[in-house]
## 1
Amino acid sequence: MTLYFTVNTIIEFSCLLVACLCLYKEKDPIWRLSILYLLFTCFTEVSAIHLRKVLHQSNLYLYNVFLLVECGFISTFFYFLYKKYVNKSKWLIGWLSLFALFYTLELISNNFLNFTFKTASALSVAFVLASLYFYYLILKDEKFERLSIYPPFWWVNGTLIFYFGSTSTNIFFDYLIQDQISIFPQSIRYRIFNILNVLLYCCWSYAFLCKYLQRKSSSSSV
Amino acid sequence: MQISSKEVFFLISLITIIFLMAPLFLMVYVNLYNRRKKKHIEETASLKRSFENELLKSQMEVQEQTLKTIAYDLHDNIGQLLGLTIITLGSIKIDDPVKATEKIAAAEDLAKRSVKEIRALSRLLHGEELISRGLIGAIAFELDWVGKSQLYKISYHSNIKTLPAKAGIETMIFRLFQETLHNIIRHAKALEIMINLDFINDQLILSIADDGIGFDFTETRELHKGMGLQNIQKRVAMIGGTVTFDTAPGKGTTITIATPY
């Protein structure tokens, strides 16, 4: 049982708990959808541990499926964040189509056996650019927002830290996946992703909390 | 040379730290810029508020000036005419019909003049809506009123036929004009007043000159004697314009106000 309690699963379940508490009454559908996404993330993580540690099988294809959900959710979330400033529905459709094309091509070239790390790297770059574009929109906007308690800002902060921070591990993916360095019990990639996951889910949890407080203050002022 | 696993670990950790620091700095930068934006918005709002306050003050001063003129006119003009009418009517002797007819005619004439003056005064009362006539009309009306006293030779030149209505700026400029004109009446001991109103390259240029005693501009400003001067400078700055004072003791005064319109 204890093998299911890792840094990743603990932080993911904690974030899911915060999301459930803060967002279950949320009117904005995309924020409410975060609960489902986090639920799916937790399910994937636990299943991956089960596959690898109990059944001693590769869990890479599970992460391949997760990549699809990840891309769909994060891209749609960005689209809804942009909507306040600009309407970029064509960008979303274009990007998702491009992603689907790359993903399929890489899956075929890997014979459905390996993780689609090239597509995942492209995804990281796209999300980094999307985060930077969101900052640009905030700076360009004439309206002032208190960023310290602005939920979209903290959601994007977490996303940027995670995808920008994971760039180096993505670059060295090939080497790290076979990392069998004796002095380190776990792969560097796993360690780095532990840190990135903690940062990502801390930022997201804070964003959910801000969203909850925002909803509370707006409903009490009505 | 082969890189050891330990070195690769160090390298990747270092790159990851750098890649984590970059977004952190970016977040701080965005936050800082946002705070500046807040400060800018607050400053703009504060400027807008002080402009609105000043505008309100100008409107009240225009009204106050109108009431002062009315009080002056009632006392010095209409009051005297009616007083004369009473004296004339009181001196009528019924037993001298010829003189009585003459005096009645004189009293009638005085009463008619009084009615005329009251009508003019009524027009001035409407002058509270002076600005609704537009800046050009309001200036012309004010000059008509000053010209009535026949104490000054007034010349007014303008190359403008119509001006787009901009209530706030018009009120401010009109009040500046009114204040300058009344400064001339009160202090300048002038015989001639020359006014020019031009519209050149989106700039409205109002020039008010007199041949009065003039004053030492630097001294007046330094000694804070000229609260009016500071007031004029402050209000002109508020509408984004500039003001120049061309004056010296014994050489008259020319005040030129240029403002984007």
## 2
Amino acid sequence: MTLFLPVLIGSVIVLLLALVLFYRPAFKTVKARKPEILADTPTFAEEYSVELAEPVRPKILDPVPELPRSYGMDRLVLMVRDPYWLYAYWEITATKMDEISSQFSPGLWESSRTVLRVYDVTGIDFNGNNALCSFDCSLGSNTDEWYISVPSANRTYCVDIGRVLPDGSFITILRSNPVTTPRDSLSDRFDEEWMWIEGLYFRQQMGVSSPLIIEELAERMGRLPIGISSPGFYNPHE
Amino acid sequence: MHTGYLCLILHAHLPYVRHPEHENFLEERWLYEAITETYIPLINAFERLTGENIPFRLTMSLSPTLISMLTDGLLQERYIKHIDKLTELSDRELDRTRNTAFYSSAQMYQNLFRSCRDTFYRYDKNLVQAFKKFQDAGRLEIITCGATHGFLPLMMNKNAVRAQVNTAIELHTRHLGRRPEGIWLPECAYTPGIDAILKESGIKFFIMDTHGILFASHRPRYGVYAPIFCPSGVAAFGRDTESSKQVWSSNEGYPGDYQYREFYRDIGHDLDFDYIKPYIHPDGIRIHTGIKYFRITGRTEQKEPYDPVAAMEKAATHAGNFMFNREVQADYLSGLMDRPPIIVAPYDAELFGHWWFEGPQWLEFLIKKVHFDQEKIAMITPGDYLKLHGYNQVATPCASSWGHKGYNEVWLCGNNDWIYRHLHAASDRMEWLAGQFYNADGRRVRALNQAARELLLAQSSDWAFIMSTGTMTEYAIRRTKTHLDNFIRLFDQIKEDRIDEGTLHYLEYKNNIFPDIDFRSFGGKIA
């Protein structure tokens, strides 16, 4: 696919060129009824326009539809771009806003500012209060997406969108799915486990197999089950 | 016993660019050019090798969108028209170039186009049959891909991933007569958890970029020179950097050699307009015809005429060089391992022939040399390897892709990030539909299946990729928005039980991919 790009770019250049050339004769046809204007020396483009006096690209293409900006669902979705960048987008429904207003004061929206609070939740079952650390990103007023720079690869992050009140307290509006940033270097875990195809025969531990490491592995696997912490598998219905 | 294995993988994929609504659609030419320059030259090479009794073993992934186009009656007829026209042009070119330095190239093109026509008809216009023939003869291991080449790690809904995988397996099995054992993850994009979904569907292996294996945890003892098992038991093979660079890099790699054909000089752009007009776009838009008379020559605009014989000799030399380097590599690696190393060399199939014109010749030379000139390395497929070496290290691969910078940035950047809020909403809605209307019948089933098609088509990673490049994005944006808009309309109609037969019928005609799709696969159903 990538390889067709040059062709693609080539075609568009030609297309644009042809477009330019095409619109000339259209002018010319109109002007032809007023010969006095046409009396000018023909330009280079006009000379060529004669042989290109055909429509460019099928004109009957359907118009490109516009997509809705919102889908009427409360969601804050966190995605991984690379080991050091996350991307979040969100949608907050009017119902949710009302709910927040009635829970706090109606003046909340004027007296507070929007922030994204980014939590490092690596290896923990996040309950809102037990993050290893967190930092805030201040947002502009009318945005519904943000790229977030994070400090470390191979860490699990979760994000809240919320409001910071003048007294510094934070109100969560929506919480995202957790994501884990990919590694950007070799793993420092050297102990090996080997497996027969399909686990047909047995699983065998080789190399360093101190009980401590196995315990740690089990713990890690238990808290960060494969498929939950990864960016691809946030299931809003779970 | 061999010292090492060479695992060549050609990933053949094009996005679905079928446009029944227009006679001449520029993007449809991607398919015709790939057929003429890549798929048929490969098939012809396989045929010659088979005729000469030279055994070979290659892996190819045929993406479901490509299979769908190659087996589509309308596109087959249009290809015939295309190749007939091109053959006619090559006949005229033979006259025009007589007694010039371009004559031998003109002869070459005439032969190429005529052989394309012959091969195309020989397989009843269905090139998938050709690939299947070599599969059944034990020459090709054909693996599948995502249904529409969707970028799996950025789908937030597991069932959207399942639908990509299961729809692909279903179509693949129908056309190739057996279930695929392996998958080419679109863009080699992986994130932990995808392997578990592959496992559910009986997929045994997939291919990753180098760092996906190297950065796996725990650290793989043999790096990319042996597969690892994901905790799910699915095997992951990693790309070898050295062999990749020799072929991939357009500067230091083989394809940039000065004897090879120059891609950017095409008579569609170079020749007199009146002469070339019947062979370019009917609206007078100059396009690549495929006839190119110059060689790369050097870092200069003054290109010299292409010499097919000199280029072929170069391809032979490069094949020898490639093989020699693999032997050295295998010698070295085998000393460090308890088993022969596997050198995995995956390429976009369209690199061969379309971009690197001499690529199919190079491949043919390589296969012959591997057979006749050495005994150290053997060609192997991932499936064969796992049958020979079923005992492998367990590690969790690192999330990665083979795109620029190695992660997700190409498919998630300022130019294309807007698509995800729509794709994710559509996936969640499709999942809801699949549950809600599981027992639907009649027209509603048709609408549900069409909604599934529109969503799958919107998910093609090709669109996000084109947007990320920032040029020529209009088509990619149009396709994304149109399929999503079609989905939204169908969703509303299904939900409110007011399905419009006219709209549905038109969409079924226009976006006819996956005739046997089952919308229930979005509810997690396994094919």
